[in-house]
Design a protein that fits this description.
The complex is a heterodimer. Chain A is of the alpha/beta class. Chain A is built from nine helices and ten strands. In chain A, helix 3 packs across helix 4. Chain B has one domain. Chain B is built from nine helices and no strands. In chain B, helix 5 packs across helix 7. Classes of the chains: A alpha/beta, B mainly alpha.
Chain lengths: 247, 253
Protein backbone atom coordinates (compact mmCIF):
# COMPACT_ATOMS: atom_id res chain seq x y z
CA UNK A 1 0.00 0.00 0.00
CA UNK A 2 2.82 2.39 0.78
CA UNK A 3 3.98 2.24 -2.83
CA UNK A 4 1.51 4.90 -3.77
CA UNK A 5 1.99 7.14 -0.74
CA UNK A 6 4.63 9.52 -2.14
CA UNK A 7 2.93 9.76 -5.50
CA UNK A 8 -0.67 10.65 -6.27
CA UNK A 9 -0.62 8.40 -9.34
CA UNK A 10 1.59 5.52 -10.43
CA UNK A 11 1.32 3.72 -13.75
CA UNK A 12 3.37 0.54 -13.57
CA UNK A 13 3.98 -1.35 -16.85
CA UNK A 14 0.43 -0.86 -18.04
CA UNK A 15 -0.70 -2.34 -21.34
CA UNK A 16 -4.06 -2.08 -23.02
CA UNK A 17 -5.33 -3.41 -26.34
CA UNK A 18 -8.67 -3.19 -28.10
CA UNK A 19 -8.91 -6.34 -30.17
CA UNK A 20 -5.73 -6.53 -32.18
CA UNK A 21 -4.91 -2.84 -31.74
CA UNK A 22 -2.33 -2.29 -29.00
CA UNK A 23 -3.18 1.12 -27.53
CA UNK A 24 -0.72 1.20 -24.62
CA UNK A 25 2.42 -0.89 -24.31
CA UNK A 26 4.21 -1.30 -20.95
CA UNK A 27 3.65 2.30 -19.93
CA UNK A 28 5.14 3.40 -16.59
CA UNK A 29 5.23 6.83 -14.96
CA UNK A 30 4.61 8.52 -11.61
CA UNK A 31 2.94 11.81 -10.74
CA UNK A 32 3.94 13.40 -7.41
CA UNK A 33 1.06 14.78 -5.35
CA UNK A 34 0.22 18.40 -6.09
CA UNK A 35 1.83 18.50 -9.53
CA UNK A 36 0.35 18.95 -12.99
CA UNK A 37 1.22 16.33 -15.60
CA UNK A 38 0.43 17.10 -19.22
CA UNK A 39 0.10 14.15 -21.56
CA UNK A 40 0.93 15.00 -25.16
CA UNK A 41 0.94 12.99 -28.34
CA UNK A 42 -0.67 12.62 -31.71
CA UNK A 43 -4.28 11.50 -32.03
CA UNK A 44 -4.95 7.83 -31.32
CA UNK A 45 -1.82 7.23 -29.25
CA UNK A 46 -3.59 6.22 -26.04
CA UNK A 47 -3.79 9.51 -24.15
CA UNK A 48 -7.51 9.47 -23.38
CA UNK A 49 -7.34 5.73 -22.69
CA UNK A 50 -4.73 6.51 -20.02
CA UNK A 51 -7.19 8.81 -18.26
CA UNK A 52 -10.01 6.26 -18.49
CA UNK A 53 -7.71 3.61 -17.04
CA UNK A 54 -6.89 5.96 -14.18
CA UNK A 55 -10.52 6.30 -13.19
CA UNK A 56 -11.19 2.64 -13.99
CA UNK A 57 -13.69 3.23 -16.75
CA UNK A 58 -11.40 0.81 -18.58
CA UNK A 59 -9.34 -2.05 -17.16
CA UNK A 60 -5.74 -2.64 -18.24
CA UNK A 61 -4.71 -5.97 -19.76
CA UNK A 62 -1.49 -5.94 -17.73
CA UNK A 63 0.17 -3.77 -15.12
CA UNK A 64 -0.77 -1.91 -11.96
CA UNK A 65 -2.32 1.51 -11.46
CA UNK A 66 -2.01 3.24 -8.11
CA UNK A 67 -4.15 6.23 -7.15
CA UNK A 68 -3.53 7.94 -3.81
CA UNK A 69 -2.10 4.77 -2.32
CA UNK A 70 -4.68 2.30 -3.69
CA UNK A 71 -3.96 -0.22 -6.43
CA UNK A 72 -7.17 0.13 -8.43
CA UNK A 73 -7.01 -2.60 -11.06
CA UNK A 74 -8.12 -5.33 -8.70
CA UNK A 75 -10.60 -3.40 -6.57
CA UNK A 76 -14.23 -4.45 -6.28
CA UNK A 77 -16.89 -1.98 -7.39
CA UNK A 78 -17.63 -0.74 -3.86
CA UNK A 79 -13.94 -0.15 -3.09
CA UNK A 80 -13.44 1.42 -6.47
CA UNK A 81 -16.27 3.78 -5.76
CA UNK A 82 -14.38 5.09 -2.71
CA UNK A 83 -11.27 5.73 -4.82
CA UNK A 84 -13.30 7.46 -7.53
CA UNK A 85 -14.64 9.86 -4.93
CA UNK A 86 -11.11 11.22 -4.63
CA UNK A 87 -11.02 11.92 -8.35
CA UNK A 88 -12.68 14.34 -10.73
CA UNK A 89 -12.92 13.88 -14.48
CA UNK A 90 -13.39 16.66 -17.01
CA UNK A 91 -14.51 14.94 -20.20
CA UNK A 92 -13.60 16.20 -23.66
CA UNK A 93 -17.19 17.28 -24.39
CA UNK A 94 -17.95 17.91 -20.72
CA UNK A 95 -20.43 14.96 -20.63
CA UNK A 96 -22.99 16.95 -18.66
CA UNK A 97 -26.31 15.15 -18.16
CA UNK A 98 -28.47 16.83 -20.76
CA UNK A 99 -31.73 16.16 -18.93
CA UNK A 100 -30.59 18.05 -15.81
CA UNK A 101 -29.96 21.75 -15.25
CA UNK A 102 -26.45 22.95 -14.49
CA UNK A 103 -27.36 23.17 -10.80
CA UNK A 104 -28.75 19.62 -10.80
CA UNK A 105 -25.64 18.35 -12.59
CA UNK A 106 -23.47 19.65 -9.78
CA UNK A 107 -25.83 18.81 -6.93
CA UNK A 108 -26.33 15.21 -8.05
CA UNK A 109 -23.05 13.78 -6.69
CA UNK A 110 -23.39 15.83 -3.50
CA UNK A 111 -26.89 14.49 -2.88
CA UNK A 112 -25.89 10.92 -3.56
CA UNK A 113 -22.43 10.64 -2.08
CA UNK A 114 -22.44 12.98 0.91
CA UNK A 115 -24.61 13.63 3.94
CA UNK A 116 -24.74 17.36 3.35
CA UNK A 117 -27.94 19.30 3.92
CA UNK A 118 -29.74 21.06 1.09
CA UNK A 119 -28.42 24.43 2.29
CA UNK A 120 -24.85 23.13 2.35
CA UNK A 121 -25.25 21.68 -1.13
CA UNK A 122 -26.63 24.98 -2.43
CA UNK A 123 -23.66 26.82 -0.92
CA UNK A 124 -21.11 24.42 -2.45
CA UNK A 125 -22.74 24.49 -5.89
CA UNK A 126 -22.89 28.30 -5.84
CA UNK A 127 -19.27 28.48 -4.72
CA UNK A 128 -17.96 26.09 -7.40
CA UNK A 129 -20.03 27.73 -10.12
CA UNK A 130 -18.66 31.08 -8.94
CA UNK A 131 -15.10 29.76 -9.28
CA UNK A 132 -15.68 28.88 -12.92
CA UNK A 133 -17.65 32.03 -13.67
CA UNK A 134 -21.06 30.43 -14.14
CA UNK A 135 -22.83 31.63 -11.00
CA UNK A 136 -25.66 33.21 -12.99
CA UNK A 137 -26.26 30.22 -15.22
CA UNK A 138 -27.15 27.49 -12.77
CA UNK A 139 -30.73 27.05 -13.95
CA UNK A 140 -29.70 26.67 -17.58
CA UNK A 141 -29.84 23.34 -19.37
CA UNK A 142 -26.50 22.13 -20.82
CA UNK A 143 -27.85 22.58 -24.36
CA UNK A 144 -28.13 26.33 -23.69
CA UNK A 145 -24.44 26.69 -22.82
CA UNK A 146 -21.71 27.68 -25.27
CA UNK A 147 -18.68 25.44 -25.83
CA UNK A 148 -16.53 27.37 -23.37
CA UNK A 149 -19.31 27.45 -20.78
CA UNK A 150 -19.84 23.70 -21.14
CA UNK A 151 -16.15 23.09 -20.52
CA UNK A 152 -16.25 25.27 -17.41
CA UNK A 153 -19.44 23.56 -16.29
CA UNK A 154 -17.79 20.17 -16.78
CA UNK A 155 -14.85 21.38 -14.73
CA UNK A 156 -17.21 22.61 -12.02
CA UNK A 157 -18.84 19.18 -11.83
CA UNK A 158 -15.42 17.52 -11.65
CA UNK A 159 -14.48 19.84 -8.77
CA UNK A 160 -17.67 19.67 -6.76
CA UNK A 161 -16.50 16.76 -4.59
CA UNK A 162 -13.12 18.45 -4.01
CA UNK A 163 -11.04 15.74 -5.68
CA UNK A 164 -7.44 15.01 -4.76
CA UNK A 165 -6.74 14.05 -8.36
CA UNK A 166 -8.27 15.92 -11.29
CA UNK A 167 -8.21 14.34 -14.76
CA UNK A 168 -8.88 16.60 -17.73
CA UNK A 169 -9.35 15.29 -21.26
CA UNK A 170 -8.61 18.00 -23.83
CA UNK A 171 -9.83 20.86 -21.60
CA UNK A 172 -9.07 23.49 -24.24
CA UNK A 173 -10.10 21.70 -27.43
CA UNK A 174 -12.44 23.72 -29.61
CA UNK A 175 -11.97 26.86 -27.52
CA UNK A 176 -10.47 30.19 -28.48
CA UNK A 177 -7.13 31.16 -26.94
CA UNK A 178 -8.66 33.44 -24.30
CA UNK A 179 -11.21 30.88 -23.09
CA UNK A 180 -8.55 28.15 -23.19
CA UNK A 181 -6.29 30.37 -21.05
CA UNK A 182 -9.16 30.83 -18.56
CA UNK A 183 -9.50 27.05 -18.26
CA UNK A 184 -5.73 26.77 -17.76
CA UNK A 185 -5.96 29.37 -14.97
CA UNK A 186 -8.68 27.32 -13.29
CA UNK A 187 -6.49 24.21 -13.41
CA UNK A 188 -3.54 26.14 -11.98
CA UNK A 189 -5.77 27.50 -9.23
CA UNK A 190 -6.73 23.96 -8.22
CA UNK A 191 -3.08 23.08 -7.87
CA UNK A 192 -2.01 26.21 -6.01
CA UNK A 193 -5.05 26.68 -3.75
CA UNK A 194 -5.99 23.09 -2.95
CA UNK A 195 -2.87 21.10 -3.77
CA UNK A 196 -4.82 19.05 -6.31
CA UNK A 197 -2.86 16.70 -8.55
CA UNK A 198 -3.89 17.37 -12.13
CA UNK A 199 -3.39 15.17 -15.18
CA UNK A 200 -4.22 16.86 -18.46
CA UNK A 201 -4.46 15.27 -21.88
CA UNK A 202 -4.01 17.99 -24.45
CA UNK A 203 -2.94 18.91 -27.97
CA UNK A 204 -2.44 22.53 -26.89
CA UNK A 205 1.31 22.64 -26.26
CA UNK A 206 1.18 26.37 -25.50
CA UNK A 207 -1.33 25.80 -22.69
CA UNK A 208 0.45 22.66 -21.53
CA UNK A 209 3.73 24.54 -21.10
CA UNK A 210 1.91 27.21 -19.11
CA UNK A 211 0.41 24.81 -16.59
CA UNK A 212 2.48 21.63 -16.68
CA UNK A 213 5.16 20.64 -14.17
CA UNK A 214 5.91 17.45 -16.06
CA UNK A 215 5.14 16.13 -19.50
CA UNK A 216 4.51 12.67 -20.86
CA UNK A 217 4.71 12.15 -24.60
CA UNK A 218 2.98 9.15 -26.16
CA UNK A 219 3.63 7.79 -29.61
CA UNK A 220 1.98 4.68 -31.05
CA UNK A 221 1.16 3.31 -27.60
CA UNK A 222 4.61 3.87 -26.12
CA UNK A 223 5.64 6.47 -23.58
CA UNK A 224 8.54 7.99 -25.52
CA UNK A 225 9.45 10.87 -23.20
CA UNK A 226 8.72 11.88 -19.62
CA UNK A 227 9.94 14.72 -17.44
CA UNK A 228 10.08 18.48 -17.26
CA UNK A 229 9.80 20.59 -20.42
CA UNK A 230 13.57 20.80 -20.72
CA UNK A 231 13.89 17.01 -20.19
CA UNK A 232 11.48 16.42 -23.09
CA UNK A 233 13.21 19.04 -25.25
CA UNK A 234 16.44 17.08 -24.81
CA UNK A 235 14.80 13.70 -25.36
CA UNK A 236 16.25 11.24 -27.85
CA UNK A 237 12.82 10.88 -29.40
CA UNK A 238 12.20 13.19 -32.33
CA UNK A 239 8.40 13.11 -32.01
CA UNK A 240 8.67 14.22 -28.40
CA UNK A 241 11.10 17.04 -29.26
CA UNK A 242 8.86 18.25 -32.09
CA UNK A 243 5.69 18.09 -30.00
CA UNK A 244 7.04 20.03 -27.04
CA UNK A 245 8.54 22.68 -29.35
CA UNK A 246 5.41 23.32 -31.43
CA UNK A 247 3.97 26.37 -29.75
CA UNK B 1 -23.91 -10.97 -38.11
CA UNK B 2 -26.81 -11.29 -35.68
CA UNK B 3 -26.14 -14.06 -33.19
CA UNK B 4 -29.45 -15.02 -31.59
CA UNK B 5 -28.12 -17.25 -28.81
CA UNK B 6 -25.46 -14.76 -27.75
CA UNK B 7 -28.08 -12.02 -27.84
CA UNK B 8 -30.54 -14.02 -25.71
CA UNK B 9 -27.77 -14.73 -23.20
CA UNK B 10 -26.74 -11.10 -22.95
CA UNK B 11 -30.31 -9.80 -22.63
CA UNK B 12 -31.06 -12.46 -20.00
CA UNK B 13 -28.05 -11.44 -17.92
CA UNK B 14 -29.01 -7.79 -18.35
CA UNK B 15 -32.57 -8.57 -17.21
CA UNK B 16 -31.25 -10.56 -14.24
CA UNK B 17 -29.11 -7.61 -13.19
CA UNK B 18 -32.19 -5.38 -13.40
CA UNK B 19 -34.14 -7.73 -11.12
CA UNK B 20 -31.28 -7.92 -8.59
CA UNK B 21 -30.72 -4.14 -8.61
CA UNK B 22 -34.42 -3.37 -8.12
CA UNK B 23 -34.14 -4.81 -4.61
CA UNK B 24 -30.72 -3.33 -3.80
CA UNK B 25 -30.57 0.09 -2.11
CA UNK B 26 -30.53 2.98 -2.90
CA UNK B 27 -34.00 2.68 -4.39
CA UNK B 28 -33.95 5.65 -6.76
CA UNK B 29 -37.52 6.72 -5.90
CA UNK B 30 -37.06 10.20 -7.39
CA UNK B 31 -35.70 8.81 -10.63
CA UNK B 32 -38.52 6.25 -10.84
CA UNK B 33 -41.11 9.00 -10.29
CA UNK B 34 -39.48 11.12 -12.98
CA UNK B 35 -39.50 8.21 -15.41
CA UNK B 36 -43.13 7.28 -14.69
CA UNK B 37 -44.08 10.87 -15.48
CA UNK B 38 -41.97 10.68 -18.64
CA UNK B 39 -43.53 7.40 -19.80
CA UNK B 40 -47.03 8.63 -18.88
CA UNK B 41 -46.83 12.01 -20.56
CA UNK B 42 -45.23 10.52 -23.66
CA UNK B 43 -47.78 7.75 -24.07
CA UNK B 44 -51.10 8.82 -22.54
CA UNK B 45 -52.42 10.97 -25.43
CA UNK B 46 -51.39 8.32 -27.94
CA UNK B 47 -52.98 5.52 -25.92
CA UNK B 48 -56.26 7.39 -25.40
CA UNK B 49 -56.53 8.46 -29.05
CA UNK B 50 -55.67 4.98 -30.31
CA UNK B 51 -58.06 3.30 -27.89
CA UNK B 52 -60.87 5.63 -28.88
CA UNK B 53 -60.28 5.10 -32.60
CA UNK B 54 -59.94 1.34 -32.22
CA UNK B 55 -63.10 1.16 -30.13
CA UNK B 56 -65.03 3.11 -32.76
CA UNK B 57 -63.74 1.04 -35.66
CA UNK B 58 -64.28 -2.24 -33.86
CA UNK B 59 -67.91 -1.44 -33.17
CA UNK B 60 -68.43 -0.40 -36.79
CA UNK B 61 -67.03 -3.74 -37.93
CA UNK B 62 -68.77 -6.03 -35.43
CA UNK B 63 -72.13 -4.27 -35.47
CA UNK B 64 -73.36 -5.51 -38.86
CA UNK B 65 -72.45 -9.12 -38.10
CA UNK B 66 -74.02 -9.15 -34.64
CA UNK B 67 -77.17 -7.39 -35.83
CA UNK B 68 -77.48 -9.89 -38.71
CA UNK B 69 -77.58 -12.71 -36.16
CA UNK B 70 -79.96 -10.83 -33.90
CA UNK B 71 -77.32 -10.20 -31.29
CA UNK B 72 -77.22 -6.41 -31.50
CA UNK B 73 -77.64 -6.13 -27.75
CA UNK B 74 -74.37 -8.01 -27.33
CA UNK B 75 -72.34 -5.23 -28.95
CA UNK B 76 -71.33 -3.57 -25.63
CA UNK B 77 -70.46 -6.94 -24.08
CA UNK B 78 -68.29 -7.95 -27.03
CA UNK B 79 -66.63 -4.54 -27.01
CA UNK B 80 -65.84 -4.66 -23.30
CA UNK B 81 -64.58 -8.24 -23.31
CA UNK B 82 -62.46 -7.71 -26.42
CA UNK B 83 -60.87 -4.58 -25.06
CA UNK B 84 -60.35 -5.55 -21.44
CA UNK B 85 -59.19 -9.10 -22.14
CA UNK B 86 -56.93 -8.69 -25.15
CA UNK B 87 -57.03 -5.63 -27.37
CA UNK B 88 -56.36 -3.08 -24.63
CA UNK B 89 -53.38 -4.85 -23.04
CA UNK B 90 -51.75 -5.91 -26.31
CA UNK B 91 -52.22 -2.67 -28.22
CA UNK B 92 -51.16 -0.59 -25.22
CA UNK B 93 -48.02 -2.73 -24.98
CA UNK B 94 -47.22 -2.31 -28.67
CA UNK B 95 -47.88 1.43 -28.57
CA UNK B 96 -45.64 1.92 -25.56
CA UNK B 97 -42.97 -0.23 -27.19
CA UNK B 98 -43.05 2.14 -30.16
CA UNK B 99 -43.29 5.38 -28.25
CA UNK B 100 -41.31 4.76 -25.06
CA UNK B 101 -39.08 1.85 -26.11
CA UNK B 102 -37.55 3.82 -28.94
CA UNK B 103 -37.09 6.77 -26.59
CA UNK B 104 -35.32 4.72 -23.94
CA UNK B 105 -33.06 3.11 -26.54
CA UNK B 106 -32.19 6.42 -28.18
CA UNK B 107 -31.66 8.36 -24.93
CA UNK B 108 -29.35 5.78 -23.39
CA UNK B 109 -27.44 5.28 -26.64
CA UNK B 110 -26.98 9.04 -26.91
CA UNK B 111 -25.77 9.15 -23.30
CA UNK B 112 -23.28 6.42 -24.12
CA UNK B 113 -22.09 8.20 -27.27
CA UNK B 114 -21.63 11.52 -25.48
CA UNK B 115 -19.83 9.94 -22.49
CA UNK B 116 -22.64 10.88 -20.09
CA UNK B 117 -22.73 7.30 -18.80
CA UNK B 118 -18.97 7.40 -18.24
CA UNK B 119 -19.55 10.74 -16.52
CA UNK B 120 -21.98 9.14 -14.08
CA UNK B 121 -19.58 6.26 -13.37
CA UNK B 122 -16.73 8.71 -12.82
CA UNK B 123 -18.80 10.34 -10.08
CA UNK B 124 -19.00 7.01 -8.19
CA UNK B 125 -22.65 6.66 -9.14
CA UNK B 126 -23.83 3.24 -10.33
CA UNK B 127 -24.97 4.20 -13.85
CA UNK B 128 -26.90 0.96 -14.36
CA UNK B 129 -28.91 1.46 -11.21
CA UNK B 130 -29.36 5.17 -11.85
CA UNK B 131 -30.34 5.00 -15.52
CA UNK B 132 -31.60 1.51 -16.36
CA UNK B 133 -33.47 0.28 -13.29
CA UNK B 134 -35.77 3.36 -12.92
CA UNK B 135 -36.72 3.16 -16.60
CA UNK B 136 -37.63 -0.53 -16.35
CA UNK B 137 -39.58 -0.03 -13.11
CA UNK B 138 -41.39 2.96 -14.63
CA UNK B 139 -42.47 0.83 -17.60
CA UNK B 140 -43.66 -1.94 -15.26
CA UNK B 141 -45.78 0.50 -13.24
CA UNK B 142 -46.97 2.73 -16.08
CA UNK B 143 -48.10 0.10 -18.56
CA UNK B 144 -50.99 -1.38 -16.50
CA UNK B 145 -52.19 2.18 -15.82
CA UNK B 146 -52.00 3.09 -19.51
CA UNK B 147 -53.84 -0.14 -20.32
CA UNK B 148 -56.76 0.94 -18.13
CA UNK B 149 -56.93 4.22 -20.07
CA UNK B 150 -56.77 2.25 -23.32
CA UNK B 151 -59.61 -0.06 -22.17
CA UNK B 152 -61.95 2.75 -21.15
CA UNK B 153 -61.19 4.99 -24.14
CA UNK B 154 -61.92 1.98 -26.37
CA UNK B 155 -65.19 1.47 -24.57
CA UNK B 156 -66.02 5.17 -24.96
CA UNK B 157 -65.21 5.03 -28.67
CA UNK B 158 -67.43 1.97 -29.01
CA UNK B 159 -70.25 3.70 -27.15
CA UNK B 160 -70.16 6.78 -29.38
CA UNK B 161 -70.12 4.65 -32.49
CA UNK B 162 -73.10 2.66 -31.21
CA UNK B 163 -74.88 5.80 -30.00
CA UNK B 164 -74.85 7.31 -33.49
CA UNK B 165 -76.20 4.04 -34.90
CA UNK B 166 -78.85 3.04 -32.35
CA UNK B 167 -79.15 6.03 -29.96
CA UNK B 168 -78.37 3.70 -27.04
CA UNK B 169 -78.08 5.48 -23.70
CA UNK B 170 -74.70 5.56 -21.92
CA UNK B 171 -76.22 3.92 -18.85
CA UNK B 172 -77.66 0.99 -20.84
CA UNK B 173 -74.41 0.59 -22.81
CA UNK B 174 -72.36 0.32 -19.62
CA UNK B 175 -74.90 -2.04 -18.04
CA UNK B 176 -74.68 -4.38 -21.02
CA UNK B 177 -70.93 -4.02 -21.33
CA UNK B 178 -70.31 -5.27 -17.81
CA UNK B 179 -73.34 -7.58 -17.42
CA UNK B 180 -71.31 -10.79 -17.87
CA UNK B 181 -68.01 -9.28 -16.86
CA UNK B 182 -65.85 -10.91 -14.15
CA UNK B 183 -62.94 -9.38 -12.30
CA UNK B 184 -60.85 -12.15 -13.81
CA UNK B 185 -61.57 -10.60 -17.21
CA UNK B 186 -59.97 -7.37 -16.03
CA UNK B 187 -57.29 -7.98 -13.39
CA UNK B 188 -55.07 -10.72 -14.94
CA UNK B 189 -54.97 -9.21 -18.46
CA UNK B 190 -54.16 -5.79 -17.00
CA UNK B 191 -51.53 -7.13 -14.64
CA UNK B 192 -49.91 -9.08 -17.47
CA UNK B 193 -48.98 -5.78 -19.07
CA UNK B 194 -46.50 -5.31 -16.22
CA UNK B 195 -44.58 -8.13 -17.90
CA UNK B 196 -44.84 -6.23 -21.18
CA UNK B 197 -43.47 -3.21 -19.35
CA UNK B 198 -40.54 -5.25 -18.07
CA UNK B 199 -39.85 -6.47 -21.60
CA UNK B 200 -40.03 -2.98 -23.11
CA UNK B 201 -37.87 -1.38 -20.41
CA UNK B 202 -35.26 -4.13 -20.32
CA UNK B 203 -34.89 -4.70 -24.05
CA UNK B 204 -34.83 -0.99 -24.90
CA UNK B 205 -32.39 -0.20 -22.11
CA UNK B 206 -30.20 -3.10 -23.23
CA UNK B 207 -29.89 -1.77 -26.77
CA UNK B 208 -29.24 1.78 -25.61
CA UNK B 209 -26.96 1.06 -22.67
CA UNK B 210 -24.71 -1.47 -24.39
CA UNK B 211 -24.20 0.26 -27.72
CA UNK B 212 -20.66 1.30 -28.64
CA UNK B 213 -21.21 2.64 -32.13
CA UNK B 214 -21.33 6.36 -31.37
CA UNK B 215 -23.97 8.44 -33.15
CA UNK B 216 -24.80 5.61 -35.56
CA UNK B 217 -25.70 3.45 -32.56
CA UNK B 218 -28.43 5.87 -31.47
CA UNK B 219 -30.70 5.20 -34.45
CA UNK B 220 -29.87 1.53 -34.40
CA UNK B 221 -30.72 1.24 -30.70
CA UNK B 222 -34.05 3.01 -31.21
CA UNK B 223 -35.06 0.77 -34.10
CA UNK B 224 -33.93 -2.46 -32.44
CA UNK B 225 -35.71 -1.49 -29.23
CA UNK B 226 -39.06 -1.20 -31.01
CA UNK B 227 -38.70 -4.26 -33.23
CA UNK B 228 -37.44 -6.68 -30.58
CA UNK B 229 -39.73 -5.37 -27.80
CA UNK B 230 -42.80 -5.67 -30.05
CA UNK B 231 -41.87 -9.18 -31.10
CA UNK B 232 -41.22 -10.31 -27.54
CA UNK B 233 -44.47 -8.74 -26.32
CA UNK B 234 -46.46 -10.77 -28.85
CA UNK B 235 -44.60 -13.96 -27.93
CA UNK B 236 -45.00 -13.28 -24.20
CA UNK B 237 -48.69 -12.60 -24.72
CA UNK B 238 -49.23 -16.13 -26.04
CA UNK B 239 -47.50 -17.62 -23.00
CA UNK B 240 -49.24 -15.31 -20.53
CA UNK B 241 -52.69 -16.05 -21.97
CA UNK B 242 -52.00 -19.74 -21.41
CA UNK B 243 -50.96 -18.97 -17.83
CA UNK B 244 -54.13 -16.92 -17.26
CA UNK B 245 -56.29 -19.73 -18.64
CA UNK B 246 -54.49 -22.12 -16.32
CA UNK B 247 -55.03 -19.91 -13.27
CA UNK B 248 -58.58 -18.85 -14.23
CA UNK B 249 -60.13 -21.77 -16.18
CA UNK B 250 -63.47 -19.95 -16.52
CA UNK B 251 -61.80 -17.34 -18.73
CA UNK B 252 -60.89 -20.04 -21.24
CA UNK B 253 -64.50 -21.07 -21.84
Amino acid sequence: MSQGAQYAVIFDRVSKAFGTKQVLRDVSFEVPAGEILCILGRSGTGKSVTLKLLISLLKPDHGEIWVDGDEITRLKETELSKVRRKMGFLFQDAALFDSLTLYENLALPLHRLTNKTQDEIDTIVDSVLGQVGLAGDKQKMPSKLSGGMRKRAGLARALVLEPKVLLADEPSSGLDRITAAEIDELLLAQKSQRGTTVIVVTHDVHGARRVGDRFAVFDKGDLVAFGTASDVEQSNNETARRLISEY
Amino acid sequence: MFKPIEFIGKVSLFALQVVVDVFRPPFEAAQIGRQIAEVGTKSLPLVIASGFALGTVMTLHTRSTLVTFGAGSMIPTVQALAFFVEIGPLVAGLLVAGRVGSGIGAVLANMRATEQIDGIESLSIDAFKFLVVPRVVACIIALPLLTVFMDFSGLLGGFLSEFFSSRISFHLYIDRAFADFEWSNFIPPTVKTAVFGFIIGTVSAFFGYTTNEGARGVGKAATNSVVVSSLLIILADVILIKCIFFAFPDNAL
